Amino acid sequence: MSRTSRTQQEIRRFQEIRPIQIAELDLRGGETRLAPGPGSPPVTHGDVFVLVRSEGRPVGTVLGHVPQGADPEVVLAAAAREARLPADGGRPEPALPRPPRTSVIVATRERAGQLARALDSLLAQDHPDFEIVVVDNAPVTTGTRELVERKYAERVRYVSEPVPGLARAHNRGLAAADGEVLAFTDDDVVADSRWLTELTAPFTADPRLGCATGLILPARLRTPAQVLLESHGGFAKGFTARTYDPLSPPADEPLFPFTAGRFGSGANMAFRAGVLRAVGGFDPATGAGTRAKGGDDLYGFVRVLSQGHRLRYTPQALVWHHHRETWRDLENQAYGYGAGLTAYLTAILVRRPALLPALLVRLPRGLAYARTLTATSEGGTAGVPGEHGTRGHPWPRRLSRLQRRGMLYGPLGYAMARRALPREAR
Prior knowledge:
The protein is an alpha/beta fold. It has helices at 3-15, 72-83, 112-123, 143-151, 166-176, 195-205, 224-231, 273-278, 296-306, 327-351, 356-375, 397-419; strands spanning 21-28, 31-36, 46-54, 57-66, 102-108, 130-137, 156-161, 181-186, 189-191, 209-218, 242-244, 268-272, 310-321. It is built from 12 helices and 13 strands.
C-alpha cells in the first residue's frame, strides 16, 4: 500500500471515532454524586469519560458506557468501584499552608471568547491573594483589550506584547507581575476552583521549590481529533504527586532532566518569581508563534532544575483543557511538538553550554527515547492503565512521521527564531 493510500485509510478510520461525554463523579463515604464536566450537558447514554473524585480530590479517571435507559450515576459509580481507584478521601488531608501572593499570567491572541471563559474560572479561585495579568500577544484587533476593559477591568490587568511568540508574551507578564509566585495557564482552559491554591501552596512549604506543575484533563471529547489525542495520553501526567530533585535524580528517569515533557505542560505551571527571573525567564526564540514552534515551557523546567531547584507535580491542581478539534490541528500539533522538543534542547545548549557533557552522556538513550516517542503507538492502542481512562485508537503513522520531521527541523527553527530577535534579546 502506498503512503498516500495508507494516509487516506488512516483519515477514514479517524473520522469513524465517536464523541465521548465528560463527567465528574464524587465519592463521599457511601454516597456518589455525578455532575457533567465544566460546560458540558448532563450525561445521557453512551461513552463517558469520568473524573473520579474522593471527597472532592481527583483520584483517577475511568471510561464508562451507559446503556440506553440506564441510570448514568449508578453505571458510572460501578465502573469507578471496579477500577479500584485509591479512595484516600476517608482520612483527612493535612491542611495546606497559606499560599504566597501569586500572579496568574494568561497569554492570548485574538481569542476573546475562549479568554472570557478562562477568566471566569480564574476569578472563582479560592486562593486568598492573587492577581491576573492578561498578555495580549501581537494583537491585530482590539477585541482582547475591549473584553478586559468592559468586563474585567477591576480584577484583571491588561498588558500588550507586540512581538509574536509565547515566550515573549510570558516574559512580558513576568516583567509586569508583582507576585512572589507566577502561575501560567492558557486561554483555552477552565480552572478547577482549587487549582491555584493547590499549585502554589507547596512553594510556602518548600523553600527549594522553584517550579510546580499540575493535572490537565480534557474539557471536550466531541471531535475525533480530541478523542484521539486524549486516548494517547493527552496532557495528563497521572494522579500521583511527585517531587523532582536535581540533588537526588530519580532512578526511573535516566534522561533526567532532559525529558522535561514528563514534568508537566505550559497550560498548568508555576514558578517562584525570583528563580525564574534569575535564569532570565523563558528563551524568547522558543514557543508557539516563533519559528521554533514550541518548547518554551520545557526550557523553563530544565533551566530551573539545572540551577538546583526542585520541581513538584501535584494532580490536585487541575485545569480542563480544550483540545484542538480537527485533523489539520493534529498535524500541526504533531509537527510542532517534535520541533519544540529539539528546539528547547538547542536553546538549553546555546544558553547553558555547561550542560553539554550531561546531555552527551544521555544522548544514546535519548535517541532511543525519541524513536519510542514517535513509533510505539503507530500500530496499537494507547492510554495510561489504571490512571487514565479512554479507549485506545491506533495512532496514525502520518502523525508520527510529522513529529519526526519536526524533531529534525527544531534546531534550524530555533536558529532562525533566534536570528530574528533584537541583539539584546539574543
